[in-house]
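Trying the structure run again after the queue cleared.
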Amino acid sequence: MPIQLKSLKKRLISFFFFFFAFTATALAQKVITGKVTSAVDGKPLSEVTIVVQGTPVGTTTYPDGTYAIKVAGNDAMLVYTYVGFEPLAITVGNNSVLNVSLKQQSSTLGDVVVVGFGKQKKATVTGAISSVPVQNLQRIATPSLSNALAGSMPGIITRQSSGEPGYDGAAVFIRGFGTWANRSPLILVDGVERDINNINTQEIESFSILKDASATAVYGVRGANGVILIQTKRGTTGKPKVIFRTENATLKALRLPDYINGPEYAGLINEALANNELPLLYTEDDLRKFADGSDPYLYPNVNWTDAVLKENTFQTINNLSVTGGNEIIKYYTNVGYTVLNGIYKQDPASPYKTNAQMKRYNFRSNVDISVSKTISLELGIGGIIQQGNYPGTPAPAIFDALKITSPINYPILNPDGSIAGAATSYLQNNPWGFVTQSGYTRQDRNSLQGTFGGKWDLSSLVTKGLSVRGLFSYDHYYSASTDRIKPYAIKQYRGKDPDGNDQYTLIREEQPMRYEEHSGANRAYYTELALNYNRVFGDHSVTGMLLGNRREYIDLTAGNTLNSLPYRRQGLAGRITYNFRNRYLAEVNAGYNGSENFPEGKQFGFFPSVSAGWIVSNEKFWNINAISNLKIRGSYGQVGNDQIGGRRFLFLTTINRAGQSYFFGDNQRFYQGFDEAQIGNDDVTWEVATKSNIGLDLEMFKGALVLQIDAFRENRDGILIQRGVIPRVTGYYPWTLPYANLGKAKNSGLDMLLEVKHTTRKGFYYNFRGTFTYAKSIMTQNDDPIPKYAYQSFIGLPIDQPMGLVALGFFEDQADVERSPKQNFMDQVRPGDIKYKDVNEDGVVDDYDKVPIGYPRTPQIVYGAGASFGYKGFELSLFFTGVARTSLFVDGPSMYAFQMGLSTYNILREYYDNRWTPENHNAKYPRVSPMQNPNNNRTSTLFLQDASYIRLKSAEVAYNFEVAGLKKHGLDKIRLFINGSNLATWDKIRVIDPESNYGTGGYPLQRAINFGAQLSF
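Done. Tokens:
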């Protein structure tokens, strides 16, 4: 009994102390309330994150800026953070109400930028890195991200040559290019190699490009062409935030081809015959019938552009995102739906859809989990489902048909409703038949992207500042195409017989609709494991990284053994940075990696770089208050490029077992011969780019003015080329000549960024941003045979430099022909033909007189300039982009009149209105000939156009407001906007878009007028 009483006594005492401790704790806790406002204009700030320092306790402000949070005592410290504003920490003390005002960040010095395999403070970066505010990209309504990049940041060069749905992505280069092989940059989305045009702009958190060796050396054999880093959005602490954005655009096709009409075409035929003193083909009565439409089947007058293409179409882009979380789990999810329609006209009687259309469904989910104070995990899942619908005939063939089918060849349909055509092969390509009657193609492209990562802070286990990070990704891509091709019947109308019955010649019989299926699939694994170190020792700051990675890509439908083998790349990357008092900066980066594509023992390479920086404005002697930051930096190093072109495993020699055959012996028996199909090169390797960069970063007036200037130079060695100096007498077939890393090039230039921004006390803000890039690539060595004349060598010329004849004008008369050097391209030239310069002065004009003319198609200068203004809820922005030092040949079909003989090929009005005639010697283009004119139809300065342009790339007007009555239903803010892209273009061509490829254009670009709304809940 005494023992029981003693036990009971102990329990009562324990309960008493527990109750006392609980009561004391409860009494120590209190609730802090208050309001958070902006120091700029006093407006309340919504979604400000408030955390009790050192604890997982946190909250966010309501739309009116108010908040409430429990704290454990007077010593608790509240930390207030909000994007674009300086963080603030306040000790609670005896206060129960804390109203705080956050200051807007006046400088970008505290920003963090994404670098290779990590992040660094912008103030201490020594490499050449450029970025762009994501909202600038979102103002351009395009399904393809690459189309929004032109002029957006220094160092990037783009050219969009087609507007076809699903195939409208622009070519992207960083600082031009240092090779004539693969020039594309490495594109990484969340650290993994992925397609830039599969990313929805609403999913992007940051977009940056790495330009110099210091920034790209860690990528080793993939860094020479520059690197694009895209980070998708991640969750933030706070209650769930839902954003729905919808935008719908009317698209107008720009610069549709303008061809001459039937009477003009028939008259041009007569003119061509008259120029060669030949009898005319059409009488005045014939010309009248072409004009009045009295006999539309024998005297057709078809506007094929109007028959096949429509000017206006439609696009919609929709996104719904949810983000939120707490100190343990943060999440971001976005779903997107995009539709882009084409400009092809549809036959109402067709049972299937033939107009081009691209549909895309995007899904992305990023989850961050804090397992403990030292361990965190990341999980990312992305899905892209893209569906395409197209006519049974591809776009290039459709636009070629427009170029070669004249308005008088035949009508769209014959009197009996059959599709018209003619016996000549190219005249069977009725453009309307191609678009509406040739069947259809359905395309599916599906991508699944999975990423899993983790980080473990080893500060408490090993040493302060040490952490380990891992990443694994799996991407799977599948594409399928179902082609239902319909060979429709083609007839040529011959008029009526004596009895009044229509007569036809059957050109092609109708055939059943074919079924063809094509598919492709691939998968890619990527793994990386990194050890990171970040430590401050007094005035010294040191960081380090050692990373190993491996990527394996497998073509699941390769079709042959060689290409079915895995494509592998693996290696190590390292980085060490040193910072003394934020004044003197040094950095060493290196990559040691390789590829399975090279000979054993020569698969790996070492690519080092060094960089340094001096923040002059942090020196004690600096006393210029207007300059808040002045940094001088430089870098030097080597980077590689293993995307060298050619077949796989170029070090292997392959044998053709069905080579030349021979007959031997008395009976002349047949023996199948063997020969070398491909001659291997045991020393084949990657390209090596040696890069140097000098940069200047300047901020003035507390970030109101930002200037960034970089000058760069690159020498590229080891460019893969097929041997060109091996003569035929050696017995090698041209297709068996070996490849070797003999090419060399250099690339140099300048890029810069200027930004001016300010926000007044009354809330009015403005931002001016301008970019400039100049990059010139020069070929310094190739393996071409030494030309007869030195001026025809490509050595020392820009890469892709065009060659052609120099046009001096036109022959005025026969006397001018006789006193000029003989032109060897045709038997007889006449007045109105092009007169070329005899460059070598040998008395003859021939191919030896070709010289470098114009600039390469990829522009050497790209610039952009934009401005944004805002006051209260109103926003206005404009953005212009432009290029210079680039040329375009507007030539070929529809500019070379009657290229395949009389009555062949369509004619652009540009040629028709500006051609040479006996009455018009002040012309832009030569006379019309009744046959192929090999003298006039040549690459020359006559058809060379300056492709420089300035384009109003985008403009936007928006208004942000809140609806008080809807807040109780969860609706926080509404943003209504109207924006447009490709709104106006100023150039010298005006016939086709200045971004087009050589020729007379293809699927045109579109102008978008986009209406949208964004709802925040």
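DSSP finds twelve helices and 53 strands in the chain. Worth checking whether this holds up in the mutant runs.
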